[in-house]
Amino acid sequence: MTIETCDFKGKKVIVRVDFNVPLDENGKITDDTRIRGALPTLQKVLAEGGALIIMSHMGKPKGKVNPKMSLGQIVDAVSEKLGVKVQFAPDCAKAQEAAAALQPGEVLLLENLRFYPEEEGKPVGIDKADPAYDAAKKEMKERQKEFAKTLASYADIYVNDAFGTAHRKHASTAVIADSFDADHKMLGYLMEKEVQAVDNVLSNIKRPFTAIMGGSKVSTKIGIIENLMDKVDNLILCGGMTYTFAKAMGGKIGTSICENDKLDLALEIMAKAKAKGVNLVLGTDCVAGDAFSNDANQQIVPANDIPDGWEGMDAGPETRKTFAAAIEGAKTILWNGPAGVFEFDNFTGGSRAIAEAIAKATANGAFSLIGGGDSVACINKFGMADKVSYISTGGGALLEAIEGKVLPGIAAIKG
Ligand code: AMP
User: Fold this and answer.
1) Non-local CB neighbours of 273 within 8 Å, separated by 6+ positions
2) Which of 138, 156, 228, 399 has its CA 20 to 30 A from that of 96?
3) How many helices (H) and strands (E) does the chain have?
4) Residue 131's pLDDT band (boundaries 50, 70, 90)?
């Protein structure tokens, strides 16, 4: 079943959303992107005369009630956005009556699912090294099933629209789906869009395909880099991880960030790229600073000859041109991770050059997917969000999907 074809009239529909929005110290929402992202799905159910039960987590309360992470704080904001007065169930596992009383067009928001350890299904208060851990885990998995059944009992139909948690096998994101047959469970619109975007870069690839991987460390990106190696034509590696490569090749990198235990890995990646015919693009020059600070003195130096006491903080002008050339000619583009310490305004130039090249390629018909918190933050900082094809709402979920892993939240519905 799909969200588009399902008839919600007279049905109770439980929707897992990602309302894990940032709040200020007064409990006011500072960025409502995630709520807006779920609206098309929620509105579809209401417009067709269904009743909505909305569930989400907020923060990491670790299985305990924590008023600072109560979804009660966002009831008014959700009411305003939906244009319907939202009711609140202060205990997500004891909402049977409130759910049963819901009429078509009405909305019930459940309290933070993670106030119950059963949501994540991990035993609390016991160390992994403890001999009793395995038994505790088994018991918690049973409790998780019961918790998921309770949530499922509130509704006729289950919709998962929380891409950000799709890589987790939690009660509300995956286990609950066991209680619904294929005609009564589906992905929401936001999930469908995310899945389509991933599919565009993994299956329906228009060539050339350029991936840009940046950020601080090669170790956290190795899974994706290896998976992409079989798919891309050009692989740009930028940001802090570059200096591990420069050092591995015998370069001088000053005080640049470097993973000394990953030098062999860097050389392996280079050899693999060569063997697979992938054009691996590494920076040739960089903007070096004499301190890790926005106000550091700067100089442009070769990426493999950085003076002592200086560190590579951003891609240099020659590098930006090489990157832009590999991006502008592409028809499929994936960007994850900045080309420099973009949080410092004086070191944003490399990331900006990438964003501009992506915008240009997109205007020429390329499909561009931006994912991972920092590259999304870059695009937003440069005010270029409307100049790329798709910005993913998923951090870890997107990266795991691109690594080729099956996401439990999607598998639970699609099989
Ligand atoms: P990641 O979380 O691995 O995607 O890395 C993102 C972080 O990498 C950002 O906070 C950037 O400031 C940082 N970063 C990018 N380039 C450099 C660099 N040359 N030196 C130190 N940190 C960097």
Assistant:
1) 229, 235, 279, 280
2) 138
3) 14, 17
4) very high
Kindly give the distance from the C-alpha atom of residue 376 to the centroid of ligand 1, in angstroms, as a whole number. 13
**CA 106 to centroid of chain Cα atoms:** 30
More confident residue, 143 or 22: 143
Per-position DSSP letters for 79-107, written without gaps between them? HHHHTSPEEEESSTTS-HHHHHTPPTT-E
372 pLDDT higher than 80: no
Mean pLDDT for the chain overall: 96
Query: What is the best residue among 374, 378, 399 to mutate for testing ligand 1's pocket, by most ligand atoms within 8 Å of CB?
Result: 374
Euclidean distance between CA atoms 48 and 80, whole angstroms: 19
The pLDDT value recorded for residue 366 is 97
Distance 238 CA to ligand 1 centre (A): 9
Hunting for tokens 């490569």 — which residue is that?
245
Cβ atoms within 10 Å, residue 196: 11
Judged against a pLDDT cut of 90, whether residue 31 lies above it is answered with no
pTM: 0.87
* E strands present in 165-310: 185-187, 209-213, 234-237, 252-253, 279-282, 285-289, 298-302, 305-306
Sequence-separated (6 or more) residues with CB below 8 Å from residue 54: 14, 15, 17, 19, 42, 78, 86, 107, 108, 109, 110
For residues 153 and 176, give the distance between their C-alpha atoms in angstroms, rounded to a whole number.
10
Catalytic machinery residues:
34, 217, 373, 396
Dump pLDDT digits (tens) for 303-320.
Answer: 999 999 999 999 999 999
120 CA to centre of ligand 1 in angstroms: 30
CA atoms within 13 A on the CB side of 147: 25
What spacing in Å lies between the alpha carbon of 255 and ligand 1's midpoint? Answer: 14
What span, in angstroms and rounded, lies between the C-alpha atoms of 101 and 224? 47
Alpha-carbon separation of residue 132 from 129, 137, 139, 153, 290 (angstroms): 9, 9, 11, 32, 52
Looking at ligand 1, which residue's alpha carbon is closest to its atom 5? 215
Tell me what pLDDT residue 46 has: 98
Give the pLDDT confidence of 209-235 residue by residue, as tens digits: 999 999 999 998 998 999 999 999 999
Helices (H), 87-177: 96-100, 117-120, 133-152
Question: Cβ-count burial of 79 within 10 angstroms (0-12 exposed, 13-18 middle, 19+ buried)?
Answer: middle
Going by C-alpha positions, the residue among 337, 347, 283 that lies closest to residue 313 is: 347
